[in-house]
Design a protein that fits this description.
The chain folds into four domains: about 100 residues, Uridine Diphospho-n-acetylenolpyruvylglucosamine Reductase, domain 2, CATH 3.30.43.10; about 120 residues, 2-Layer Sandwich (Uridine Diphospho-n-acetylenolpyruvylglucosamine Reductase, domain 3), CATH 3.30.465; about 120 residues, Alpha-Beta Plaits (2-Layer Sandwich), CATH 3.30.70; about 90 residues, Alpha-Beta Plaits, CATH 3.30.70. With about 475 residues, the chain is an alpha+beta fold. Strands 12, 13, 14, 15, 16, 17, 18 and 19 form an eight-stranded antiparallel sheet that branches. Strands 5-6-10-8-9 form a five-stranded antiparallel sheet. Helices cover about 35% and strands about 20% of the residues. Helix 1 packs antiparallel against helix 3 and helix 13 packs antiparallel against helix 15. One of its GO terms (molecular function) is catalytic activity. Its cofactor is FAD. Belongs to the FAD-binding oxidoreductase/transferase type 4 family.
């Protein structure tokens, strides 16, 4: 096709899309599109024919049909908070970005059935608030919850701080509404706790990162609202004690542990230096810290008693060196600000090579020992900053550049550091992507590490559902 003919076809396509979504539902000016072209860390910056913002599932379906007819790629995008490049277009500029921010209705809430039905573009924090107002809990919680959208959370199978108790997003979704690559709307908006009628098709789209269809609605699982929470920051002298602390916390609380977050000394230093309103609450430094939270929906649970029993037992056994219990809401918020602000604090120390990995919980200390030894031998002066959801085995193993090193030079070692860390993870029967997904960043990495049979099955599924290859092409799996 000649350039002039291609331009004419593109112009006609955009005119027809505009007829579907209206003038306020499409952006084509470069400056207007710019905020939708880059992922949060700036690793990928793309171009697009347009940013399209449908307001209903039917509009999404019509846009998809038009793009399918012309073979134009579609990049589904929610709040654009993803960290693996799955939510932005490629640099060639021949795709459209389909942003779901106008799909923002809370359709229904049923506190008896403990379900909440929403559009895909509803912001996670809005869902949390709606559940709270109905005296319920939607437990998905993560740092970007003020801007990320539930459709993106589902498409990436987001994790967060409460996975230990409530599971990943996959466990929180009962039903879905999805626009398939041919423009068909699959309505599976069921609020059933049990449905054993064949293949669990919804799970193709949960964690599919928009490569098999565009999620436009979901039925979410709610839980009784906690009436009591207890939070403490515990200091450890040996990271090998962390799993013993977790085991005692679960056993002595009746499994009421909702969060168990690991922070290293370097992370504490960064938070103390760079985060407003955060300070080290201990008189003396320690090598490791865990943020522990118990919660209960029972008003007579005596959670404080169980919490104090756990801490006393851990002291007596010598597996924690010190602890500070949050005695106020503000102090509890400060502890969480310390943990959730670590990625922000790291930015002040230069470039960072990041890993989102998981290993069996019992092997977390072994992973930290092996990975830290390997990366420091490979690059003396590198500053590991491990933190994360050790309660479910997910560690964000971030590597801050050596002091004084040029950031661009350091980032040039990204692939080498990935190979060191990921080789260790896979040797420990772990995963090189625990909660952030694959996107564009790890599309080749999973080919390197996954069984060939797994990659082939993924390719077959992709070809079967998206034979024209228009749905988020080049992400997750190449066909």
């Amino acid at each position: 096709m000649s350039d002039l003919l291609e331009q004419a076809v593109t112009a006609e396509l955009l005119d027809r899309i505009t007829e579907v979504v209206g003038a306020k539902g499409i952006l084509t000016a470069e400056d207007d599109m710019a905020p939708f072209m880059a992922e949060e860390r700036g690793l990928f910056v793309g171009k697009a024919l347009a940013v399209v913002k449908p307001a209903t599932a039917q509009e999404v379906a019509e846009v998809v049909k038009l793009c399918a007819d012309e073979g134009v790629g579609i990049v589904p995008q929610g709040g654009n908070t993803g960290l693996v490049g799955g939510n932005v277009p490629f640099e060639h500029g021949r795709e459209i970005v389909l942003n779901t921010s106008r799909l923002n209705r809370i359709r229904d809430i049923d506190p008896v059935n403990f379900t909440l039905t929403v559009d895909a573009g509803v912001v996670l924090e809005t869902i949390q608030q709606a559940a709270d107002e109905a005296n319920c809990l939607f437990p998905l919680a993560l740092g970007a919850q003020g801007s990320c959208q539930i459709g993106g959370n589902i498409a990436s199978n987001a994790g967060g701080v409460n996975v230990l108790k409530y599971g990943n997003t996959r466990e929180l979704v009962l039903g879905l509404e999805v626009v398939l690559p041919d423009g068909t709307i699959w309505n599976n908006m069921k609020s059933l706790g049990k449905d054993n009628t064949g293949y669990a098709l919804k799970h193709l789209f949960i964690g599919g990162e928009g490569t098999l269809g565009i999620i436009t609605g979901a039925v979410l699982k709610l839980f009784p609202k906690p009436v009591e929470q207890q939070t403490a920051l515990c200091a450890l002298d040996d990271v090998h004690d962390v799993t013993r602390v977790l085991s005692q916390a679960r056993a002595l609380s009746g499994d009421a542990v909702t969060a168990f977050e690991l922070i290293g000394r370097f992370g504490m230093d960064l938070a103390d230096r760079h985060l407003d309103g955060v300070s080290d609450p201990f008189e003396a430094p320690h090598p490791w810290y865990v943020l522990v939270e118990f919660s209960s929906s029972r008003p007579d649970a005596n959670l404080r008693g169980a919490f104090e029993t756990f801490l006393e037992s851990a002291f007596e056994d010598g597996i924690i060196a010190d602890a500070v219990i949050a005695e106020s809401l503000d102090q509890g918020k400060m502890f969480w600000r310390l943990r959730e602000g670590l990625p922000e604090a790291q930015k002040h120390e230069g470039a960072s090579i990041k890993h989102d990995v998981s290993v069996p919980v019992s092997r977390v200390p072994e992973f930290l020992d092996r990975a830290t030894k390997a990366v420091t031998e490979a690059m003396p002066g590198i500053r590991p900053c491990p933190f994360g959801h050790v309660g479910d085995g997910n560690i964000h193993y971030n590597l801050t550049q050596p002091e004084g090193m040029d950031p661009k030079e350091y980032l040039g070692h990204w692939d080498a550091m990935n190979r060191i860390v990921h080789d260790i993870v896979v040797d420990m029967v772990g995963s090189i992507s625990a909660e952030h997904g694959v996107g564009r960043l790890k599309v080749d990495e999973i080919v390197h590490y996954k069984q060939a049979e797994e990659i082939e099955m993924m390719r077959r599924i992709k070809k079967a559902l998206d034979p024209k290859g228009i749905m988020n092409p080049g992400k997750v799996v190449r066909v």
